[in-house]
Design goal:
By secondary structure, the protein is mainly beta. The protein has one domain: Porin, CATH 2.40.160.20. The protein is built from 1 helix and 9 strands. Strands 1-2-3-4-5-7-8-9 form an 8-stranded antiparallel β-barrel. Strand 8 and strand 9 form a beta hairpin. The longest helix has 17 residues.
Length: 203
């Protein structure tokens, strides 16, 4: 695990050395999640479907994003939520993001990168069956992964803000829907005319 974090730190340092002017912060409310597997799905308390795969997992995702080129950026997410079993869970996530399209008030990006998922242990819940998804460490369970992802849609609200909706990999088995607000800290209208959704003059 130490090697995992060391590689991530080196990776972030290299990426931030290439970052240029534009950056933003983002906060989202996580809402619904869908679990692909059947692992311990019977333990879901906040389920919205009979089989427990669709559940409500309330929480927040905080993010900082900085652009390296007009269409690529580095984004760091930090999530904190109550999972489907009523336990505290979350993750830090580092993504390299690529813009898929940008049409005036509409923009969509895709990001991929490593994440470290953690949750309060489910092992003390009646009916829990050990699987290979999480590792145990006392009262916590965790899983580092090299490839997690996010698909995000942004809608222009003002020159400095967007409505932001995303689908995130919330843990190794689930995706989640989150909605929130993006605020642009820096967005310089320079000669390179960097294209960003909050800067219509760049189009």
């Amino acid at each position: 695990m130490k090697r995992f974090f060391l590689i991530i730190l080196i990776f972030c340092g290299f990426c931030f050395s290439k970052i240029q002017s534009q950056s933003n912060v983002n906060i989202k409310l996580n809402t619904l999640t869908y679990q692909f597997s059947d692992n311990n799905i019977n333990l879901a308390k906040l389920k919205l479907s009979n089989n427990g795969k669709l559940a409500f997992e309330p929480g927040f995702i905080f993010a900082y994003e900085a652009f390296a080129t007009p269409t690529t950026s580095l984004k760091i997410n930090m999530a904190a939520l109550m999972d489907k079993a009523g336990k505290f869970a979350g993750f830090p996530q580092v993504l390299i993001r690529f813009r898929l399209f940008n049409a005036f008030k509409h923009s969509m990006t895709f990001g991929v990168g490593p994440a470290f998922y953690f949750r309060q242990t489910w092992a003390n819940i009646d009916g829990y069956e050990t699987d290979d998804v999480y590792s145990d460490s006392g009262s916590w369970q965790y899983r580092p992964v090299w490839f997690s992802g996010e698909l995000e849609y942004n809608y222009y609200l003002t020159k400095m803000s967007n409505l932001s909706i995303s689908v995130n990999l919330m843990n190794p088995e689930s995706i989640g829907l989150a909605i929130g607000y993006k605020y642009w800290i820096s967005k310089k209208s320079n000669k390179r005319k960097r294209g960003c959704i909050s800067c219509p003059s760049f189009h």
